């Protein structure tokens, strides 16, 4: 197999792989007591590559290989990829490519919520890492900002790259027939998610408790003390409810609108947002930023609320099965799971962006549900826990079931097109690297000199 074909095949196989997010991918460093021997091994202008970055990614690849041999130059390839990322960050500074703080904070919150769910709770996350949620978010924020900046810079380089059907076919024909990947059973699964609604009794209890706290603070009580004892926002509770400084547009609209009506030292009435109920104390304005404290209460949902969600899903299921509506329309109009609701209710394959999912890579809760289903069947409403830990109900739809087969253009066009596009984008990045590598200062430690990181574009 020649080098170009081998590279193309490798790209295809990597694209078709699927692995759950790891701690490193989430951007969270190792727990206390598990630090790697570190040191700077490459400098790219004001950007650096640490030895631990290379070693951590290498360790992930070793674990993923499960005993199979790895390329002898894998560490060099990892380093080359990291250097390309650092070059993009360095050029982003020069070209004034930036990301908004609102986007960074949103991604930090999303990853932290997901990781807390994987571990079990925010409290267990704090215990494992020996830090508060706020401290973990502070550690995470610079990494996320760099990742988002790299993505934006890469988009400016490859955003207009596209492949034609002819290029996809040419890409596919370069792969030797005896090296074509063999795909296991794949399915298309749709879902409609309806969260549990907080009942009025729980809402009124939360509001009453916050109003009581407000009265005690107005009578001379200390807001921070009440926040430490009562707030259900673990990231700020330990800090007396203090959230720090934010610009306009960075906090949820309801919270910001209430804050903007206050003067330093004043408290808001009880404010409801997507996170629960807040009591806000305004601290100060500084330039175009402002700081606040808050006490957050999250009313618990109950079985009656889940039952209401189940009744709505039962009604939608009946309408879909009677052809009164389509699954796609019902998902778009009712499901609160945005990634799937905007995709006709279908779950997406993170590896290639398509809707066909390898059966053996499915979430166990879905696998054991659809394993005995017939194509076209829709389940009755089932209990579900969302990625951010909220109670909900959902129905699942098995749209299609593709038997095991060897890759071909007819059945696997979307995957092959994604791999061909990735190869073309990689070439565009290599060309950009070759053009811009001389515009930055680059220094490599002697132990990695053999990696020839400047030769990325000359593979």
From TrEMBL:
Residues in the signal sequence: 1-24
EC numbers, comma separated: 5.2.1.8
Gene Ontology molecular function terms on file: peptidyl-prolyl cis-trans isomerase activity
Domain PpiC: 184-284, 287-382
Keywords: Isomerase, Rotamase, Signal
Pfam families in the cross-refs: Rotamase
Source organism superkingdom: Bacteria
Broad class of enzyme this protein falls into: isomerase
Region Disordered, residue ranges: 331-350
Matching PANTHER family: CHAPERONE SURA
Record protein name field: Peptidyl-prolyl cis-trans isomerase SurA
């Amino acid at each position: 197999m020649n080098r170009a074909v081998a590279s193309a095949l490798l790209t295809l196989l990597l694209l078709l792989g699927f692995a759950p997010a790891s701690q490193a991918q989430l951007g969270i460093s190792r727990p206390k007591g598990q630090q790697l021997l570190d040191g700077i091994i490459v400098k790219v202008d004001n950007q650096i590559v640490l030895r631990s970055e290379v070693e951590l990614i290498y360790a992930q690849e070793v674990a993923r290989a499960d005993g199979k041999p790895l390329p002898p130059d894998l560490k060099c390839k990892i380093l080359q990829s990291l250097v390309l990322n650092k070059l993009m960050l360095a050029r982003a500074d020069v070209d004034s490519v930036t990301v908004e703080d609102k986007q960074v904070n949103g991604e930090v919150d999303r990853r932290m919520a997901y990781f807390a769910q994987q571990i079990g709770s925010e409290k267990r996350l704090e215990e494992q890492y020996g830090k508060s949620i706020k401290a973990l978010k502070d550690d995470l924020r610079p990494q996320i900002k760099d990742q988002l900046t790299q993505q934006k810079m890469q988009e400016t380089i490859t955003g207009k790259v596209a492949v034609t059907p002819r290029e996809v076919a040419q890409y596919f024909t370069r792969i030797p027939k005896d090296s074509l990947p063999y795909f296991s059973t794949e399915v298309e699964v749709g879902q409609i998610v309806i969260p549990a609604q907080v009942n009025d009794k729980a809402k009124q209890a939360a509001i009453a408790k916050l109003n009581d706290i407000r009265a005690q603070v107005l009578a001379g009580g200390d807001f921070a003390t009440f926040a430490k004892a009562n707030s259900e926002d673990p990231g700020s509770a330990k800090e007396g409810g203090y959230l720090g400084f934010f610009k306009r547009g960075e906090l949820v609209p309801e919270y910001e609108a209430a804050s903007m009506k206050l003067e330093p030292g004043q408290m808001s009435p009880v404010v409801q947002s997507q996170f629960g109920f807040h009591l806000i104390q305004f601290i100060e304005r500084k330039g175009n930023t402002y700081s606040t404290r808050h006490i957050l209460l999250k009313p618990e949902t109950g079985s009656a609320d889940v039952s209401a969600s189940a009744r709505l899903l039962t009604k939608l299921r009946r309408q879909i099965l009677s052809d009164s509506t389509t699954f796609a329309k019902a998902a778009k109009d009712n499901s609160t799971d945005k990634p799937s609701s905007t995709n006709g209710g279908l779950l997406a394959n993170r590896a290639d962006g398509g809707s066909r999912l390898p059966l053996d890579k499915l979430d166990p809760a879905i696998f054991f549900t659809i394993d005995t289903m017939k194509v076209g069947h829709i389940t009755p409403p089932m209990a579900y826990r969302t990625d951010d830990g909220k109670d909900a109900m959902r129905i699942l739809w098995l749209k299609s079931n593709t038997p095991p087969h060897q890759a071909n253009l007819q059945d696997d066009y979307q995957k092959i097109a994604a791999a061909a596009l990735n190869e073309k984008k990689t070439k565009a990045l290599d060309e950009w690297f070759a053009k811009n590598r001389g515009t930055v200062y680059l220094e490599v430690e002697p132990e990695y000199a053999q990696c020839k990181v400047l030769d990325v574009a000359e593979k």
